[in-house]
Amino acid sequence: METSLVDDSELAELEAELAALENELNSIQEMDELDMTDV
Question: Whole-angstrom Cα distance, residue 26 to residue 23?
Answer without folding.
Answer: 5
